[in-house]
Amino acid sequence: MQTTIACLTAPGKAAIATLAVRGPQAWAITLAHFMPRKGSLPDTPDAGQYWYGRLGNELADDVVLAVKQGLPTIALEVHCHGGVEVVRMIQELYLEHGAILSPWQDETNGLFETLAHASTVRTANILLDQVSGAWQVCMRELADPDPVRGTQVRQRLAELIPLGQHLVEPWQVVIAGAPNVGKSSLMNALAGYTRSVVSPSAGTTRDTVALRLAIDGWPVEITDTAGIRAATNDLELQGIERAQSVARDADLRLWLLDGSTGPIFPDDPVGWHFLINKIDLPAAWDWQSLPEALRISARTQTGLTELCEMISRQLVPQPPLPGEAVPVTAEQAALVGKKR
Fold first, then answer.
1. Model confidence band, residue 102 (pLDDT cutoffs 50, 70, 90)
2. Which of 9, 19, 154, 268 reaches 20 to 30 Å from 252, CA-CA?
3. Confidence tier at 265 by pLDDT (50, 70, 90)
């Protein structure tokens, strides 16, 4: 493995610059050229340690040295003055002793770029934890000689892979059902404004209509589909086929039933979560016959809080704790499967 140095901050003049140093010689080079203001450096550093001191030889700068990751692969951050020449001086110091320049993207596994696209505070905080070293800490736990502990860590990481794939890309939630059961009205109620065309005429929505929003801090794209029934024309048939295709690919499928008329169920109920809408109207059938169904009213917004809680719980059953590692990249997800 090669020792690398990368500038994590933007090139050009600035008050402070941050450089990342990683690899087998990172600590040896630093030991030889860093003088702390107080005390001395340990032979082997631990993650979380930091010192203030001078880095360099004849030319030197006052820097803060932080250990982001300890053994087996030491990773450091050097926080120095942001002048172009100061950054170049520190880079050359490490290059002269065998390090190579590395793009900043290589040092962060693209996490900073991913963080820039986070659409909610909750997902941004999870990504910040990963940028701050949560993954590296977890990798040390995964290497624990206790096989039971290693298995527990691996299982938890595997559970979080779907979440890692949806910190930027939204979860796909589809609302389906027979025509005129209130799918578009429900979507509008969740969004807080009119997004779909709503009409008392059955079959108005001819194609899927998608809306992005945040539910419990998770990015979600809700799709309102055409009413599923025996089509009366080619245009409606296309909408129904599109609805069925979207439903097959969704992360969560909600089937809406009309509580004020006879219920119409999907051909295959497996994988659907049932909602009984229009509970503000007189019941036309025994709702108790479907005890697992959530009862709501899109018109009065009754039950929408419970619906959002259910959506969040189904998508992310066990959210990560603060500072917990989450596999974000494809490489990290693959590594979870390889670790045995």
1. confident
2. 154
3. very high
171-315 has the same fold as 4-108? no
* CATH class of the region 171-315: alpha beta
Q: Is 75 left (phi over 0), alpha (psi -120 to 50) or beta?
A: beta
Q: Residue type for 183, please?
A: K
| 50 Cβ contact list (under 8 Å, min separation 6) | 64, 65, 66, 67
For 119-164, the pLDDT digits (tens) are 999 999 999 998 877 887 887 777 777 888 888 999 999 999 999 9
CATH 3.20.20.10 fits domain 4-108 = no
Q: Is the pLDDT of residue 340 over 70?
A: no
79 close to 64: Cβ distance less than 8 angstroms: yes
CA torsion, points 222, 227, 229, 230, in degrees to nearest 10? -120
What digits encode the pLDDT tens for the residues 248-261?
889 999 999 999 99
Domain ranges of the chain: 4-108, 111-167+319-338, 171-315
Cα separation, 119 vs 219, in Å, equals: 7
Q: Terminal CA-to-CA distance of the chain, rounded, Å?
A: 22
